[in-house]
């Protein structure tokens, strides 16, 4: 890899949709990028992995402005590369399959900007797999081709060797082909393919709104127009498509086709989101937060008898502080208390044991550690903890960029359930949504609302949400059951 001060461009395939189909290398690049140029078909959820201050540039290609846009993109890649930035060019699927990566690499080469190409799962394979169809099979298909269903020619018909394609290839994946379906099937039949050859259309493959349509070369064009089937879709032609069952392994998942916005109030990794994704749900955690450890002083820390940690982050910030000041934890006499299970677990990670807050004795000097939000809320703190000193060991800030992701998901109709784990999350989501021009009343129209408990439900109703369900208990199992039951 090149040394510092040198710009670097990564041309990355984002995969077909499911964010977990991005390569590890691709994710690493996104995490360190200064600038991300992304396409329309890239799942916007991946933008949540960027640095909070990364610059995000949308390169959604408008069909009629194809050429102009591509030139502008090339110019930007070179410009930022020469400025010494880490640049990520993120494309749907694999960048070298109808992704113009060759042209981009060429301009970088000419400008002597160093770059790498990171492959991705191409839609023809990813969408087929998630629809339950292997693109080759010992009994049904020994060869596989990816073919464009659209072209630069005046009528937009692809100019390909139809004879060769019809007779020599078993499985064919057409990209961008929906508009030309009748032309494509006519050509294949005309050049020798059996009209009864099965065809499977897969739209939005690998994400929750994946849809399929089955037919044959003779019937598929009519069926597709009747169903108003649209791009982005793969047209998969060949006997392998017979292997599709009524529902694929993906479509059978418990939370398939669930598009969830999970309210979030801090920057800690959420186990809830992970568990929901594992059940097949599309999950967007919103808003996004970033926290910064503060340069603090804790005068006479050894004199406190009780130290209360209000969050896991306050625990790590405190221990990092001890470390920086070269203070041995054994000097601290205080009993540690955690305000939540997560905080207690965090204390344990530093080989100390904490007590739950409800077991806190009401005696001895108390130090409460938290974030800057609580600095000013002295009266509330006093009510909650009695007499105490408070130190903000870190500060939390909202990352504006997640509003862009939110907007894209709204545009793509990919927010259908709002989950509020706490009252605070209700306010955070509502504020973030307001920035996207959405009121609770408007959200009621498109999404159902699930609250973890009384307090979140109360807060939600006060702000004008229709609360559809309250969990019987605030657990992941209860959440999954509620989601699955009432979808
Ligand atoms: N480089 C991409 C293809 C870009 S061309 C890749 O390797 O997948 C854009 C076309 O890809 C779309 O018109 C559609 O045919 C296909 N495509 C991309 N994502 C898709 C998805 N999730 N489901 C179905 N088709 C998809």
Explain what you see.
With 487 residues, this protein is of the alpha/beta class. It folds into four domains: 8-120, Cobalt-precorrin-4 Transmethylase, domain 1 (3-Layer(aba) Sandwich); 125-243, 2-Layer Sandwich (Methyltransferase, Cobalt-precorrin-4 Transmethylase, Domain 2); 259-288 and 399-486, Rossmann fold; 291-398, Rossmann fold. The chain has 16 helices and 21 strands. The protein has helices at residues 24-32, 66-82, 101-110, 123-130, 162-168, 181-190, 220-226, 271-278, 312-324, 341-348, 378-385, 402-411, 423-435, 440-446, 454-462, 476-485, and strands at 8-13, 35-38, 55-58, 86-91, 115-118, 144-148, 171-175, 198-203, 211-216, 233-237, 259-263, 282-286, 288-293, 306-309, 335-338, 354-356, 366-371, 389-399, 417-420, 448-451, 469-470. Strands 13-18-17-14-15-16 form a six-stranded mixed β-sheet, covered by helices on one side. The longest helix has 17 residues, at 66-82. The relative contact order is 0.09. The mean pLDDT is 94. Residues 16-17, 41, 91-94, 97-99, 122-123, 127, 175-176, 202-206, 231-234 line the site of S-adenosyl-L-homocysteine.
